[in-house]
Amino acid sequence: MTATALDQPPVRERPSRGFGAVVAITALIAAVGALTTDVPTSISIGVVVVVVALLGLPHGAVDHLVEAAISGHDPTTRTSRLRFHVWYLGAMAGYGLVWLVAPTVALAGFLLVSIHHFGQSDLAHLRLPGASQLAVQWSRGLFVIGLPLVAHLAVVSPVIGRLGGGDPASWSWLADRWALWSAAIVVQHVVVGAVVARRCDDRAAVRREAVTVAVLGALFVSVDPLIGFAVYFGLWHSLAHLRVLAEVLGGASSADGRRTLPLRRFVALVAPRAVLSALGLIGLVAAMYATGRPDLVLPAVFVLVSVLTVPHLVVVERLWRHRTSPSRSR
Which residues form the domain of 222? Predict the structure, then answer.
């Protein structure tokens, strides 16, 4: 694996394949959610575990190849593999230690980096000038992380409490005005988006983002927070990011486009690490139920996913910086 795919001049992001289908499915789920109450926790957990196992874990399964493409190192050499995996496992162990000694810091830190990550991955393709790009990315991240939490504060508060984040449902400034805060989260993203849209010359992208905000807003407000975020994570974030990874690993085909890695080859690259991580995730959930502590399933899954995710976020940060660097500007 070489840096060939990343060294080609970047092309303007093409409209996401299946955008209309994703919007329709999301809108349907939002409508069903608005008519459904009291979703069993076991169903919510099941949806999250399936989405994370099938779409989330493959995110990091090729991080070693992505890092090699960025650095130009040969991922097949023993030294290169050893260096990367020592760093990766060390980062996981380090963040696990933070959870043990300072869970509140670990929770706050993971939420902050998640805000950055989701906003960046969703909107890096816009390639807006400087502060505009940063502002809209953080605004998007706050929207997708903050809205499900605040709009369903009573549901998520016990989980946050078990993770060491206190009891947000007891914070009167937030709990008594959750609808106002939810509206503020939506409005800030609409306002920031409207301001930076004037600096984006891709009007089709602007229209797609307007539709995205509308349908995701409806999803996050009307659906169980776990299911709502799982739908966003699976249909909107993961599929788009996996497509980027397939392009990076597939190499460039011409000046006006990219060829993606064949699906069979991509699955073969992803499967070993993804399956191993999925078995660990399923084993953790089974252990919680077997020990009579289903109340700890969500906190345990959250901690495990965060530990797996932190080094992945570093790799993705480097990937997007490389793909959107000034030397590779349009």
Answer: 16-323
